[in-house]
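TA notes, week 10

Several of you asked for a full example with nothing omitted. So below is the full record: structure tokens for the whole chain, then the designed sequence directly under it. When grading your own attempts, check the secondary structure regions first.
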């Protein structure tokens, strides 16, 4: 919802309105699909990736990747990190190929795919990237477990720091109000 009109157009391929994004979010299947996010120290979600698994049996070994990064957080590699995380998860989940559908003008998304080794096919205003994933092994599975533990610890530390900061601010407000009463 925090994306501006241009970013929504690049992410969804059309100028998505709030109601359309709300329908998209409501349609996420958290049992079948995976969603990965990056939070800043204020616990604001600044990057979000969706790894969508198809319901069609003939495509069961494929997944589609989409990502959104807040405008102010771009250029820091968050989209690429989420792509790597999604590819690792997909590979460990038995997926053979990841696809990206993007507008040809969405250079950031196509660069992420190209840098990961995906084959790009441009067809006018739209492009598709296809990445063959390696088969899972003990190293990829261990890496994913460790990545998940690090992500959970990072979020927990940020949450505790945020709560502590909120508590400190409330103390400052209490002291300020006590000081004004004493005056």
């Amino acid at each position: 919802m925090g994306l501006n009109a241009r970013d929504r157009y690049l992410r969804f391929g059309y100028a998505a309105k709030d109601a359309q994004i709300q329908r998209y979010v409501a349609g996420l299947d958290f049992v079948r699909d995976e969603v990965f996010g990056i939070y800043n120290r204020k616990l604001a979600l600044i990057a979000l990736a969706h790894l969508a698994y198809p319901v069609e049996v003939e495509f069961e070994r494929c997944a589609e990747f989409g990502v959104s990064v807040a405008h102010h957080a771009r250029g820091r590699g968050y989209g690429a990190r989420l792509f790597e995380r999604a590819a690792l998860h997909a590979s460990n989940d038995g997926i053979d190929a990841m696809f990206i559908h993007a507008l040809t003008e969405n250079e950031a998304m196509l660069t992420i795919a190209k840098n990961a080794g995906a084959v790009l096919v441009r067809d006018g205003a739209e492009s598709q990237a296809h990445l063959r994933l390696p088969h899972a092994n003990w190293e990829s599975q261990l890496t994913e477990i460790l990545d998940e533990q690090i992500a959970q610890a990072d979020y927990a530390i940020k949450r505790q720091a945020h709560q502590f900061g909120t508590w400190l601010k409330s103390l400052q407000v209490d002291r300020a109000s006590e000081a004004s009463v004493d005056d």
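Residues 53 and 59 are 8 Å apart (CA to CA). Use that as a sanity check on your answer.
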